[in-house]
Give the backbone structure.
Amino acid sequence: MMISVIPRWPGLRVLAGSMLFNLASGCFTITLGQALFEKSGSVSAFTGVVMIEYLVPVLLGALAGSVADRVNPAVVCAVASIVPALALMGYLVAPAGLVVMGIAVGLIVNLIRPFYRAGIFAVGPRSLHQTDLPRYNMRWTVSVQAGQITGGAVAGAFLWATGPKWAFFAAATAYALAAYALASARSAVSPLHEDDDATKDGWISVLRDALDNPWSVLSLLLLGVDFLTVAAFNVALAPLVRQLYGNESWLGILDVCFAVGAIAAPAVWGRYSSRVSSRGSVTAGFAIQILGFATIALGLGFGDAPGQSAVPVGAVLLGLGVAVSSSEQVSILQVGAKSSTLGRIGALRQGVIGLTTALTLPVVGHLVDKDLAAACGAVVVVLALGVAVNIGVGRCEKVSVA
């Protein structure tokens, strides 16, 4: 039965590539964070790598978005997958120290990610019929989180059993398989013709529409709130595990808990989403994240068995909240998107996420080194501000419609 059903899924190859890419990214991120933390005893080096990940879209977003709009986005995604695979293989045979090479590989991986993200944002709408998009997007969300689950589990298992080198090798293999899957999907992508809007709608018109009024700007800034949660969780993971568990396998377990919450979002939130506006769903997602960080902070305060039980619950809540609010924000962003500007809109989204996260993450990283509970509190403050701003944006949008 599985053989007859799965090939009928629209965009199956892209979904497979997405899952493999996110498996590789999850495995790489956790392994690099743990390896740098063990070598330096601080999260500062890893915080720097994560900051690069969020700053690069600001610097390369314009190029990445334009490339994804003018070149087959499936090919863009495939190239953006094979480069990290080659970089990791280079690291495995290089004689340099872990800290130097780890940061260098992290830089290479993060330099190429904007091209993947712009491409994957565009490849679905350009390869599927519009009626297939809602179901595809749901499966895409699941593929991302399923990849993160598997990547976290793979990283935790290899770190516990053999050390970081085999975990990096697993990440490189997954990146290479993702490149193959995404390259095989290139024939399904519809081309943009010369008379399409691709040559008319440049970055100026995209930015003009996005920055039309102050509320539009605030709406864009809200895109970064969810990803501050993700970045803060990743940075805090290694010291959190050391403080409460003392077993590296919990790196993967907690990452799996986060991803389980995200995967459960369609089923858990689906029964309420029809009764709540898109902006209401964003507010609910932020509120769930606040509850998640509060649960983790309480777990840190309790320590021992109660704390060890509370933190996984907090991780599940974080995953659920991020999935609810981020997916609704993507839907809001895509409502008026043209097929010829999907790559640039995706790049603009990543640029905003990168800028807002890079401005706030250094403070969170510093607090993680000093006090994990205080770091949770700092992110809660940002989330509370996000709730207030989102409510204001929602009221403004209602007035505009009226």
